[in-house]
Backbone:
């Protein structure tokens, strides 16, 4: 495929010449998505851990709902946030539409259910294992949630990476609430959409290759920094 | 664990502070939001014009490129300061309803009908676009429509009407409504080997023409004028009326007209300035 | 020497689920320094009894009382060890530190208590090792050490050495008898009759949720009074 080969060559050239526009777009993509994932983790992990540990009426329905929200279409989230932030909408007075802040808001809303639903499962599984021993030690409430979250940290890193993958790869939400404005709200995915619409398929592919490369780097870095090693001793 | 909690609170407060910072008051803003069409963006015209305007006035222009239909809707909601679109009757309705003020003519270009080199419907030698559409329909040749209430789409529908044809009946068969911007629609046409209506500006700048070419052009009904409107500040007080008016004045004044007329893409002149009467 | 929370008294304990009594009218007393082994066929309710005594479950009727009506926060004074070691994903010493923290031991006192617990269990060389990387035998030794760290008045153990290698079994039994010699009461559920003979001073024999027999270990093993106990000791299957 000639386009693919041209795309790879273009991708390398853009990276090695440190193309200014490209760096700007990458920077914004990372800034928006990393911030959104951070917020989503704070909200989602606490929510998910609580849902994993607490027993309350209607719990199965809440879990089903939470899991279903993992499938929220990005474009629908974008539409919803647009209606909220539009000047004609309830939060219009803040003038947040067409800003990176709006994009962070949209992606946070998109990623939080994923983090919460996966955290709930991870924490619940761990809770089953630890329940009796922790109760014997008198651990409950906030202390229980903190212990479970910290002990689940390796699984939770993967959960965060899943959220990041979702955020950095979506285009529907950031397009609508950001407007793909040059030098302001243009990120990797919206740039790819734009170049595709201009028929610049090789460039669009090149940007796509770079985006996948960045995702690889992020996952690799996290794995090196946070991964656990070691196999059990035998006695 | 407490230091992690501290970091969380710091971040939370920082973001709250940023979100709650006082909204930029209209008069203080040194930018305007321009809701425009994909044709003005994809052709590169806006990228050419905006730095000139910024140099002259210090005002930045933030472009949201959507279809005419969406641009008008955003204007109604007040999510923009100025609209630059190309659907005269829709523009006039917009102003009549009180959503916009000070509509002026800006420039024109033209639409062209593009299609596969093989031209199965044999329209390549026609100068009457309505006849061309009639032949396409008769031949059941694939035709891709914008389908998105854009200026191009509105004109396309008018042309079908002029030809006495209702293509919606064949929607999904030979008449394919892409619901997309011009670029995506062209990609679809290339992929299907289909005919489509496009503005010349987008076409000239489009890099994936494959084996599509211009088959019909020059018909007066393909004349494509653009209008510029200020979002009504009486209705939406936050609108940057000063900046917006400055942009309109510049674009329709001698400097703007000269800039529009001097823009070339691949050696071709795409847009012709109009003097507003 | 602070006051012990023992003697522990169980009065006519009954625990029913869906109308079925899984524990049916069990009464017993555990004195300070006692070493009681709970024996019985599977499904007799041994684990359930342990959890009722420890306070993890509430009886359907009957009550559990501690010395002189001692109430409130008894967590530091009793500990429980389960059949499978439950350890957190942290180092050996951090696991003990966590338990001490959860039980409300002030930070200043923890270091010494951890050192002592590790030394007694023979785990000082592994103190920084990730607890989950230890062998099963070492892990269970750690949970016992963790339980002992707070110097409780009484420890409950639910088949702690089932499926451990003999060396680990021996070390854990030594830990328990040493702690018992220092004055800690032990209530141990086991299937290992040999272990019961080695460690127990009192035997509590359960069958079908009821207390079938309770006597000193010598009396029980020499002349078991109940038919069920005799059958059990003879190695028969009891339905």
Residues:
């Amino acid at each position: 495929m000639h386009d693919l080969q041209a795309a790879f060559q273009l991708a390398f050239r853009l990276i090695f010449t440190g193309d200014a526009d490209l760096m700007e777009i990458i920077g914004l993509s990372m800034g928006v998505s990393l911030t959104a994932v951070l917020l989503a983790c704070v909200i989602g992990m606490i929510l998910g851990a609580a849902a994993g540990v607490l027993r309350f009426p209607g719990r199965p329905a809440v879990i089903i709902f939470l899991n279903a929200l993992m499938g929220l279409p990005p474009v629908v989230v974008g539409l919803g946030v647009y209606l909220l932030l539009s000047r004609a909408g309830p939060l219009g007075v803040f003038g947040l539409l067409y800003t990176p802040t709006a994009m962070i808001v949209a992606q946070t809303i998109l990623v939080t259910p994923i983090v919460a639903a996966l955290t709930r499962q991870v924490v619940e599984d761990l809770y089953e294992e630890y329940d009796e021993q922790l109760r014997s030690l008198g651990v409950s409430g906030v202390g229980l949630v903190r212990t479970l979250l910290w002990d689940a940290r390796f699984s939770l890193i993967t959960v965060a990476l899943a959220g990041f993958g979702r955020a950095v790869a979506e285009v529907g939400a950031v397009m609508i609430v950001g407007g793909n404005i040059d030098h302001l709200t243009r990120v990797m995915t919206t740039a790819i959409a734009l170049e595709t619409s201009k028929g610049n398929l090789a460039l669009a592919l090149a940007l796509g290759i770079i985006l996948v490369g960045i995702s690889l780097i992020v996952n690799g870095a996290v794995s090196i920094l946070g991964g656990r090693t070691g196999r059990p001793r035998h006695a | 664990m407490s230091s992690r909690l501290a970091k969380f609170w710091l971040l939370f407060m920082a973001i709250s502070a940023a979100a709650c910072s006082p909204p930029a008051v209209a008069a203080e803003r040194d930018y305007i939001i321009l809701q425009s069409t994909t044709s003005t963006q994809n052709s590169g015209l806006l990228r050419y014009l905006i730095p000139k305007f910024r140099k002259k006035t210090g005002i930045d222009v933030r472009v949201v490129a959507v279809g005419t239909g969406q641009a008008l809707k955003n204007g109604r909601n007040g999510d923009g300061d100025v609209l630059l679109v190309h659907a005269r009757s829709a523009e006039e309705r917009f102003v009549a309803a009180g959503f916009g003020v000070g509509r002026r003519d800006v420039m024109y270009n033209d639409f062209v009908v593009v299609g596969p080199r093989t031209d199965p419907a044999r329209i390549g030698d026609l100068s009457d676009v309505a006849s061309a559409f009639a032949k396409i329909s008769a031949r059941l040749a694939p035709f891709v429509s914008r389908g998105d209430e854009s200026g191009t789409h509105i004109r396309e529908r008018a042309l079908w009407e002029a030809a006495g044809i209702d293509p919606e009946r064949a929607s999904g068969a030979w008449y394919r409504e892409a619901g997309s911007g011009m670029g995506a629609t062209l990609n679809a046409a290339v992929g299907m080997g289909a005919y489509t209506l496009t503005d010349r500006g987008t076409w000239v700048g489009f890099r994936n023409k494959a084996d599509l070419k211009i088959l019909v052009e020059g018909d007066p009904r393909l004349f494509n004028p653009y209008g510029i409107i200020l979002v009504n500040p009486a209705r939406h007080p936050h609108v940057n009326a000063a900046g917006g008016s400055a942009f309109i004045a510049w674009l329709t004044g001698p400097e703007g007209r000269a800039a529009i007329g001097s823009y070339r893409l691949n050696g071709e002149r795409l847009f012709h300035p109009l003097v507003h009467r | 020497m602070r006051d012990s929370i023992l003697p522990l008294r169980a009065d006519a304990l009954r625990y029913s689920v869906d109308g079925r009594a899984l524990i049916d009218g069990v009464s017993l007393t555990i004195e300070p320094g006692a070493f009681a082994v709970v024996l019985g066929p599977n499904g007799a309710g041994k684990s359930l009894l342990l959890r009722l005594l420890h306070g993890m479950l509430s009886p359907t009727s009957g009550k559990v009382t501690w010395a002189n009506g001692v109430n409130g926060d008894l967590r530091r004074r009793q500990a429980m060890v389960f059949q499978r070691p439950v350890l957190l994903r942290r180092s050996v010493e951090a696991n003990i530190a966590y338990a001490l923290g959860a039980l409300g031991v002030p930070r200043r006192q923890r270091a010494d208590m951890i050192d002592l617990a590790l030394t007694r269990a023979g785990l000082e060389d592994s103190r920084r090792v990730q607890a989950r990387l230890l062998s099963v035998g070492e892990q269970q030794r750690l949970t016992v050490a963790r339980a002992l760290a707070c110097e409780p008045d009484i420890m409950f153990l639910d088949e702690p050495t089932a499926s451990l290698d003999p060396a680990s079994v021996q070390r854990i039994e030594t830990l328990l008898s040493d702690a018992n010699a220092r004055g800690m009461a032990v209530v141990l559920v086991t299937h290992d009759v040999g272990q019961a003979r080695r460690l127990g001073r009192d035997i509590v024999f359960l069958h079908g949720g009821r207390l079938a027999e309770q006597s000193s270990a010598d009396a029980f093993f020499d002349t078991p009074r109940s038919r069920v106990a005799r059958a059990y000791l003879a190695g028969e299957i009891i339905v």
